[in-house]
Amino acid sequence: MVAVTVYVGSRAWDKEPHNGGAPARFKRSVSLNRFPRVMGMRSGYDPEEVDALIGRIEATLGRGSHALEPVTADEVRTATFRAKRGGYHETAVDFALEAFVVALETQAKRPVRLALAEPTGDLLREEWFESQAARVERVAFRPGRMGGGYNEDEVDAFLDRIVATLRGTTDFPVTAKEVREATFSTVLFRSGYLIADVDSFLSSIADVLEQRRG
């Protein structure tokens, strides 16, 4: 595969108006095109086939619909797509798939996580959730490989929502389901967070939010 370009699960977070000093709400807007298209009369990768594979990858990483069939790193590495006029730019797709291969291989090597133990009692519960909020604030992700990774601004904005949820200071708390299904655009030739690091951390935080809901 040739490595070049960039946007996977493209997403922007827009602030909505709010009243009474409550934290701003972020809403997700998803681009209809995950990748840039080829120009003119050229053919590129079939967008439907690419989108279907990306959907399976995100589900396997715990970030999308669990109804989709899981995919392995080897399947992604050997994936082929039909040519279609005006399709996705091949190098853009290839670069993103290389990053997803790394994420899938990292996930396969991770040990099974045990359920998080949570203190009992109202006061201890709040202290424990405060410690988890501080953990989110302190997290540091490694830089992405080959000059790419998840968009840092999008990830940071999402982490801010998680912190506010854990501290109970937002009218628009984020749910464990939202965390597991969140998607971020990828960047090229500028700083980005390592995909495997972000996915692993958010998976653990989703478990914490499940307990917050209880």
Concise synopsis of the structure shown:
The chain contains seven helices and six strands, in the order βββααβααβααβα.
Question: Please, could you describe this protein's structure?
Answer:
The protein is mainly alpha-helical and 214 residues long. Helix content is 45%, strand content 11%. It contains seven helices and six strands, in the order E-E-E-H-H-E-H-H-E-H-H-E-H. The protein has helices at residues 47-60, 73-77, 90-109, 122-138, 152-167, 176-181, 195-213; strands at 11-16, 25-30, 43-45, 83-85, 148-150, 186-188. A two-stranded antiparallel ribbon has the order 1-2. Strands 3-4 form a two-stranded antiparallel ribbon. The chain starts with 10 loop residues before the first strand and ends with a helix. The relative contact order is 0.18. Residues 1-32 and 112-116 have low confidence and may be disordered.
Main sheet specs? 2 strands, antiparallel
Give the number of DSSP strands. Answer: 6
The strand order across the widest sheet is 1-2
| SS-derived structural category | mainly alpha
Which percent range fits the helix content?
Answer: 40-55%
Oligomer: single chain
Beta strand %:
5-15%
> Average pLDDT across residues?
76
What are the defining features of this structure?
two-stranded antiparallel ribbon; 214 residues; mainly alpha; 11% strand
SSE topology:
Elements: E1 11-16, E2 25-30, E3 43-45, H1 47-60, H2 73-77, E4 83-85, H3 90-109, H4 122-138, E5 148-150, H5 152-167, H6 176-181, E6 186-188, H7 195-213
Antiparallel strand pairs: 1-2, 3-4, 5-6
Helix pairs in contact: 1-3, 3-7, 4-5, 5-7
